[in-house]
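DM from R.C. (forwarded with permission)

"hey, sorry to bug you on a friday — could you get me a structure for this? deadline for the figure draft is monday and I only need the backbone to look sensible"
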Amino acid sequence: MYVCSCFGVTEKQVKEHADAGACTPRQIASACKAGTDCGSCVRRIQAILGRGSCPRRDLLDQGMPALTAEAVELPEAA
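My reply, with the result:
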């Protein structure tokens, strides 16, 4: 079944991108453009993503902090 008729993206494709690590509609859009034209499919994408597990969301639920720029120590320039 098509989720995004603008770009011909199916529910199966959205689930595949989610299985590959996409956890938000914006990440799905980056992977396949779904939701970037008329936007009518964004709620459907949110519903699909809400059903599955997200590795990053699971880590946050377990109390692991999200990776931020402040958490990464960069070597000082010489």
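R.C.: lifesaver. Confidence is low (pLDDT under 50) at residues 67-74.
me: no worries. The helical segments are 11-19, 25-32, 42-51, 55-61.
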